[in-house]
Amino acid sequence: MTVSSRLSSDNKQMVISINERFDFSSHQQFRDAYNNEKLKGLTYILDLSKTEYMDSSALGMILLLKDHVHLYSGDLIISKPSATVRKILEIAQFQRLMTIE
Amino acid sequence: MPNSHKLALIVDDSKMQCKLLSVLLQEENYQVVVANDGASGVQMYIEHQPDLVLMDINMPIMDGFEATRRIKQLSGAGNLAPLIFITSMDNEQAFIESVEAGGDSILVRPFSPQVFKAKIKAIQRISDLVEQVKGLQQEQQNDAELAEKMMSGVIEARNYGLDKIGVIKKAATIFSGDIQLSALCPNGNIHVLLGDFTGHGLRSSIGAIPVTETFRAMTNKGFSILEIVSQLNKQLHTLLPGDLFFAASFACISDHERSAYIFNAGLPEGYLFNGEGEIKKQFSSSHPPLGILPQLLPDTQLEVVQIYSGDRLVFITDGIVEARNPEGELYGFPRFENAAIAGIKQNQLVNKVLNSLDDFCQHCEQEDDISLVDVPCSGWQKIEFNNKTSPEHLILNESLIDDEQTYLPTWSYHLHLTGKLLKTVNPIPLVMNQINDIEGAGEHWQSLYTILTELFVNALDHGVLQLNSSLKDSAEGFSQYFNERAKRLDNLPVNTINSPDNFVRITLEYFPLSHGGKMIINIKDSGKGFDIVDVMKRNNIAENDGIKLSGRGVELVNQLCDTLEYLEHGTSVTASYIWHD
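^ Those are the sequences you sent over. The predicted structure of the assembly is below.
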């Protein structure tokens, strides 16, 4: 399983982690990780610390997640991307669309 | 699907068995052909191309395993004429061996007619599915090839300057999600685009058509590169689903202005090389890819660079630097840069990069589209300056000559822009549209476009915004100039009624001539004006030194116009432009 997600016990944070490759093959898993989560005002943390590779379709998937988060008035934080992944996010200037830490 | 016309081949040395199976198959609407040994079984398979093969194992001349191996080799992987082994050898070894030889199923005697028929039905069902998938695949392939042919016809074939612009385009599938566009502006500038839609294949190429149309139409009408970027972004945001977007780099190369305007939204760094292959500047992405945000970010700006003869702009998509070799290593920027530099020195950048990439990848499967554009910054055809008409073409319509009083324009046009509108509205395409609407399209409007653009920019920059063009004389001043310009534009007041402080007024008057026409252009601005004589003098001195970057605009206009006159301390300029058919 390359995509895993868990909701914090206080129902305030949803952490989605992606291992190894984040590309089109994880499309369905990634969607399933958040699609049924309808709680309002959640902070979504996309943990990319274990992601080794990311392609442009992954950027697209992050945008879909952002739409979902926006729909339920939550926040989206991209957490701990590796240097390679950070570079890809920066080329796409995603730091101007969402928080990356 | 009914089995009415299906053909079965039975390969069995027992005539009794053949007879029995034939009857059962005929009850299931099969036609039947029979062979009594493996070798003739293979022969019959070739001759009849059956839809189903029943194969015995122990036979003279050639056994069932060998015959099966040959048949399966003939039929190829994608082609499933299902083959069922019929045998009395009820042991594991026979089962394993029959599958390894290429059998699709095995039926062990004794079996009832019902079991046999059920088996045939089941295997036929699978075979029908395979057929269906194959058909769909073929159909998809045909559609994709047709669409690709049309797309590349629409997109690449109409690109401008293909003899000068070097292009690499290697699609990962039939369709490339990458597009390369080039088009000529009315004033002789070149617009270039290299873009990469998310993903690849047909899904990612859909956006290519609207992008191409908009890019071409707006370039044609004289819109600036930033206006085109902004429009494309808006359009793609409306058109594309949320996870599909367009990373792209844009350039406007102005040979006569010796400058290039660059914008990179989401592509890897672009390069400006000089003729010796040194990297003079790199352009990193400064904006999210297009189609994500409803509008461009408010601080969006183009990068402006000075260009010299021999300079080249090179844009790449991530497919190049992320190409992998069999060991999984990335091709990366250093390898690309070395190949590009070596290529420029030998004047064959595209070939050098391609060879280096091929050597590195060793026929590894290509994961993403690979593309590059290599655009020379100089050597573009200059717009022609031979518009000065000889006197015999200047005969006015006779009725006009007869009576001075009736020498009035057939139409005139005024556009008065104030305050913030000077930042947000580009009047030149508006004006050109009017002219085209009234007088029709024509080659001669190209020079008029240049005249209007240069005079308007001068009125705005040096009149309204009070920028000093001598800033542009040095490389540092050059970018300082454009930063300052953007700042002052931002500070223009929001429109107020009757505001006399900041305006530019464009007036056109059109006079038909017997073999052409004459346009009088007047541009008036709210600036303080300048000492005309002084500026002209400075320009002349600098022109002789050959180092001057500013003042080119007026010089160019002067060459294109019939007359050019600055009035009212330089706050008003009148140009007349005459052309003949």
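The first strand of chain A starts at residue 3 and ends at 7. Strands of chain A lie at 3-7, 13-18, 20-22, 43-47, 51-54, 75-79, 99-100.

Shout if you want it in another format.
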